[in-house]
User: Fold these one by one.
Assistant:
Number 1:
Amino acid sequence: MAEEITKLICITCPMGCALQVTHDGKMVTKVEGSQCKKGVAYGEAEIKDPRRMVTSTVRVAGGGHPLVAVYTAAPIPKPLIFDLLAELRQVELHAPVKMGQVVVENALGTGVNVVASRDLPVA
Amino acid sequence: MALKAKYDVIIIGSGPAGLAAAVAAKKEGAEDVLIVERDKELGGILLQCIHNGFGLETFKEDMPGPSYAQRFAQEALSLGVETLPDAMVLDVTSTRHLYAIGKWSGLVDLEARAIVLSMGCRERTRPQIRIPGTRPAGVYTAGTAQRFVNVEGWMPGKRFVILGSGDIGMIMARRLTFEGAKVERVLEIMPFLTGLTRNYVQCLLDYNIPLQLGHTVKRILGNHRVEAIEAVRVDAKWNPIPGTEEVIPCDTLLLSVGLTPENELSKKAGVLIDPVTGGPFVDEGMQTNVPGIFAAGNVVHVYDLVDWVTEAGYLAGRSAARFAIAERKRATGQVKLQAGDNVRYVVPQVMDREALAQSGQRLQMRVVKPIEEKVWVEIMDGQNLVARKGQRYARPGEMVTVDLPQKAYDAVQKADHLTVRVVKRGGE
């Protein structure tokens, strides 16, 4: 296989370094343009196994609001985002909800839990 | 919760700036701290900012807005901060009186030794950017749509165009995509991105949402509901370039076109506003031109990171607490001089407790009714006589004076207030 260069913008911090990642398929040989180590790690991960934190909402019955915001406790693989969103649409919690409460355990087999972002007491 | 008539620090708004100010004020030694919030719960706009990226600096953790708000709200409450939610502040005066009205509290009249203004911003709306065209339903500010989608559970439309590449606009583009909507385009009138680069990557690039720089909405089409918008390229002076128009079918237009600090209350209190920021002029401790009135957060100028808003809130809260403590000390260093029997008023109305260390003090007054016989003019601390002088008569038309001698120094230190009365000598 031939080496190629992929241009990325680092999202680790607001600086937004322009990265040039040299790789052969998923084998990364060089990350250039980063101002810190986090950028190098991001550049490698983005080629090998790109991941994102996902935040969305799930329904809640009996709370002060009809929804509560939830998030993945760690980033999950990018290709799974829409599958996870579809699964979250099936979830309905019952108030009271507690901040950090596990909403979906080991989401889609990733080992990552989806947790509640806040308390939602009974209305 | 029963409200007190007077607080050390009253904070208006419970977003990140207000919550940080409350925490810092308590830690600095302020006794009674109250947050007045118009929503039913604390947190402000953080509650609808469900995306992650909050707390990286403050908590070294990547969390969504509601979590960030809850951590601060819990800290404030555990420190003994009082809250008045579901109440709207109607007026603030330069003497730090505050009037608020709420469903549960009714109209309340509060007084503070120091006030922190942390009301945040309002979004700019369609009239402020003057988009021509019809006036159909389906034109929202991005923040309003964010509240609908993330908190209240309503989708404002199915096909969106977003005007403005600010952070809220890009974050909403992703959020609406997550909820099954199609975001046709993000338009930005400037030749550059106005939000954070990382939001361009993780909100637009990740989901193939097209961004067009140097473009704006020329007009809105549709009668009852938005049917399309006409996009157009602009030159360096923002003039539409003829021939570059493109009609984009959609049912909803979101506006993410800037924020305006919400300073109506500040102006009522006599706070001077910087025409460039739209927020109060502040000093290094976040104090405005009105002594004892402080300001922090987006009400001062628009921030892009919550951690910096928190820092500003801490600073304003500390400064407000120091001011309040000094104010309390100054007030306890004074003794009030009040009118008693047959006295209409006394001047001066207050006196520094240390004044007698320098010299005796002359008090001036007028009586209410004439007494045509010998009288005593008496200065009392409750039932105890501090000083007195005799006169042959007392009449309202003739000013009465009495001297508080230096030897009354010890008596004055003990008194909460002194009362002056003019009574018949025979009646003692």
Number 2:
Amino acid sequence: MSFLNSYIYYVGAFGLILIGLYIILVKHNLIKVIIGLGILDTGVNLFLICVGYVAKGTAPIFSRPGTDSEHMVDPVPQALVLTAIVIGVAVLALALSLAIRLYQHYGTLNLRKIREQKW
Amino acid sequence: MRKIISILLLSIVALGIYLSLTKIPFGVPKSKVGKHYIDEGIKETGAVNIVTSVVVSYRGFDTLGEVTVLFIAATGLAVVLKIGRRKATAVEPASFVLATGCRVLFPLILVFGSYIFIHGHLTPGGGFQGGAIIASAFLLIYLGCRERRINEKAYKSLESLGGLFFVVVGLIGLAVGGYFLLNFLPKGQPYRLLSAGIIPVIYIAIGFKVGSELAGIIDNLIEES
């Protein structure tokens, strides 16, 4: 129980990652697989932010002179996630465009019926 | 069968994650480099927002790489959707109230997005966030005034110019002081709009680039529907 108390954010982040992986592995509909990719992306971003968190921390921005710098969270993962979110959107859009073309070519989004996508 | 195998596989993964996560404490400062950025960031880069100084100054080269990834994703989407596109069908115009509301909101959202990326070194925000807000303004126009299209040449060239500007500013630093992306402009007084040297310049370029790129993605996807 103490693990849950102190690590609830990690549990949430990896819960999202595992849910996303499960969807990618199990679902047959390509749109659902892409939704799983989005959930996985969110989980990874959340985990990176959690790693940089400092207890009772504030954003690493000196909004006025003399701001206390003792309780600021780590800025490096925040900078990483900032760009990763925008890239995640672009990659999701790319995956959706491929799904559109795949649907026009095969007439279905079911990965079991597309012979080349079967595994 | 597949479900059972997947659940087994994922539980093994979860066990491995659990065993390694118990070694990582939550909520304590971990990296010395982050502490250094917070303590010395204002002195070294002149930017009050430490995240911005990490994105554009300390890790500027990584950001160039990430912008390139974004560019490749947007270009790949355009290529995939351009091949074999059918003729666009006539669209039904939206109602008068919706169209007028969108036309009123559009410039306000553009101004807000520009504010976000111009003040990236002072307040929360920056080029990526401001660009996303600007793209949302274009999405509103596409939903409200359906017959309107943005000029494809304009956003393509704006996107390319933004990326080119980033590289050129980095190369000027290389020529002046011997480092790529050297902060060669005067850093000025912190907490002022005109401070932090090349950081706002680069972030404005990134803002234009991300905004036009995401607007292009929206344009391509809407023309497909």
